[in-house]
Design a protein that fits this description.
Layout (H helix, E strand, L loop, with lengths): L2 H8 L7 E7 L2 E7 L2 E5 L4 E7 L3 H9 L1 E6 L5 H8 L14 E3 L5 E3 L4 E13 L2 E13 L8 H4 L6
Antiparallel strand pairs: 1-2, 1-5, 3-4, 4-9, 5-8, 6-7, 8-9
């Protein structure tokens, strides 16, 4: 396989940038995700990919709930904050305005909107784990255009 061609083509895929938030007992965390998609209309479900080395993966397995917070165009700095590993930034939620959603996960006040999900299944996928969650709550916090990977200047590895 031509590795450079693979990278170039995969980097052409359009991606949004989101903050996925999780909670287990008194611990809260969030991470930047670009692989998020709606995967069912009825019941409404979304799928996310979580790095296998992340702190959030363990929390997701333990709690079975997550929220996808849709970032607004111009929120590159916020996306960058949540893209840091928990080892380097153990309290990424500090100073970030949020409230507790119906599932107990943090909802970012600065997001355009959010969906809260209960995990219905997961499966390994290379160096990530895929989680499918049924949407149990949703909210629009403000109007705007969603942030994209391209706008932020971030690059997915491909």
């Amino acid at each position: 396989m031509d590795v450079q061609a693979r990278r170039k083509v995969l980097r052409l895929f359009p991606y949004g940038l989101y903050v996925v938030t999780v909670r287990y007992e008194s611990q809260i965390n969030g991470f930047t995700a670009n692989w998020v998609t709606q995967c069912s209309f009825e019941p409404p479900m979304v799928a996310i990919a979580v790095e296998d080395q992340s702190r959030s993966l363990v929390m997701l397995h333990q709690s079975g709930v997550f929220a996808v917070n849709v970032l607004a165009s111009g929120q590159r700095e916020l996306a960058g904050l949540f893209s840091r590993s928990s080892r380097k930034a153990p309290d990424k939620m500090a100073g970030i305005a949020h409230r507790v959603g119906v599932t107990g996960v943090p909802i970012l006040e600065e997001a355009l909107g959010y969906v809260e999900c209960r995990v219905v299944t997961n499966c390994p996928a290379g160096d990530h784990t895929l989680f499918v969650g049924e949407v149990v709550e949703a909210g629009v916090l403000r109007e705007g255009t969603a942030l994209t990977l391209q706008e932020a200047g971030f690059r997915y590895g491909g």
